Amino acid sequence: MHFDDRLATVLRLPSSGDALARIQYRQLIDILGRLPEDARSDAIEAGFARVEELGAQIGAADRARLVRQPLQPLTNARLLALFAEAEPEVALAAIGTARLDEAGWLRLVPALPVRARGILRHRRDLGPEVGALLDRLGIQDRGLPPAPNAQVLEVSVSTFEIQFPSEAASESHAPPQTLVEGEPFDLLDEAELSDAEEEPETEHPRGAEPISFADFEQAATSRRSAALRSGLEASGGGTGLEGGDGIGAIVRRIEEFRKAREHHAPGIAGGSPRLPLGDTPSASAPAAMDFATDSEGRVCWADGSHASALIGLNLAALDPMVSEPLDPAAPLPSVQMASMHVPGLALSIRHRQPLRAVAIEITGAPAVSGAWQVDAVPHFDPASGRFTGYAGRLRRPGKIAAVDAAPAAEPSEADRMRQVLHELRTPANAIQVAAEIIQQQLYGPAPHEYRALAAAIAGDCAHILAGFEELDRLVKLESGALGIESGESDLVAVLSETVARLKAWTEPRGSGFVLPETGGPALPIAIERTEIERMIWRVFAVLAGMTAPHELLPVRLAVENGRVAMRVTLPSLLLARDAQSLFETPVSERGQSLSTGMFGIGFTLRLAAAEADAAGGSLQRDGDELRLSLPAFAASALGRVQDAESRAL
Predict the structure, then answer these.
(1) In angstroms, rounded to a whole number, what is the distance separating the alpha carbons of residues 124 and 139?
(2) Cβ(312)–Cβ(299) under 8 Å?
(3) Overall number of domains in the chain
């Protein structure tokens, strides 16, 4: 990129609604969080000011969630300091995702609030100098309150009576408390009550080093055990217990429980509780993602939890027509072809063609990096027809789940062509119907000028629809979806009728065809008469339209190897074409005076060749002649024709 205007673009977005505010907040975190620490500009200052404004609009829980899920780690110390002064959950999320070097931490730690320093101390990836700085600043371990579902020791002992000492004289004769076997008894809670009654509150001397949570918990446990032991020993004289085994067993169980809890706890130095900085759910990489692009091929929408990682992905990055190379340092993800010998991606994008299983390589966030396959179709504006972009799906290669049913076969080229013809035929039919309504004044009188224009439009639509029918027929014949109806017809009679119909065109110009002498035997062929009339008309109409004035084309008929063969000399205008270009339609070819079809003479001859091939024959060039070979109707009829030819010779 020659210039980076992403921040200005994000600042121009509206933030009126909650959803738009969260989107803008998320994008600002991604952009500002990757800026260098010394980056300064008016746009950057406006970005930080907008972050503070959105912080007052968005709840703390939502902000913590947005901070915890950036595309890249938070590396900007200024933004981290801003989040550290926010609510505890926001500060916890920011410090947990921050990735600063040791020099950056050393510059930032003195400016952090005390609460943020306590959170920072629980990170295990800080350098020794950062830890020493935290120690010099007087920050000790900060613990979290006990979990609400903490385990409570339940002890079942034999039935005995315990007389706890009381301070009031009136309570000295109270009945003793009885422990019944099978009932739970929380010794820790009882000891806690004893500690609360016996120990007065003492104020911690000012200026002394604060007591860590681990030391406080150990001291409290010792006091509870001592108080419980002294209370039980004072009242255990007449309980009937054997010596002190019952009291000792209870104390030993308490000690074993505490040791077991410490043993199963995570190995954190100092015995302090572990902060859930790394307890984020493991995000599995998506196997497929739907997306949409703009008209330039850049992803503007995607679905899924990793959608923001795809926004800005340029599918046309490897277009050879692009003169401006992509900046490798740009933070936006880039796309590369998986193999440089694949030529279809850039060409298909330029021509607005569908993309099918195109292999690409994405470089960006870990969740979307790697090999992908693209399946997409172009979209166009229904009103203006303007190209609006692609819509499709990215999928990992080889990650498609197996299904019981057989996968649907990919549509062939012929099927796609028929679909295109169907889409083209629909609006042409609608235009023709509207023109006929105006021309026939079905909905009321119309001016004569409008009726004349409507009649011309209806005629053009009919011509277009006829061309679509011919194109559809060619596709079906070449794909084998359509065959030629078999039957019996006389080729000599069909030729005579066709030449007679063309005389209105050929006689004024002195051109035409020279048929064999009449009165000869019939040439029966195994094709229905309508089909052979259509085929012969296509061939002879093309040849008649290309003849020069006073040019006559001889026609010869013969039986060759059990087939009926017709040979006609090509006009001089078609002799310059080779055997392949004769059946092709050049781009500059226009319709002839004698209409042979909407798509020109090459297409018409190709359609006639497809009809002959479907009937079991062929139409091809043989030197200066066009040779049509068709299957005969019966061998006996061919025998009579051959006998007649031999007698004539």
Answers:
(1) 15
(2) yes
(3) 5
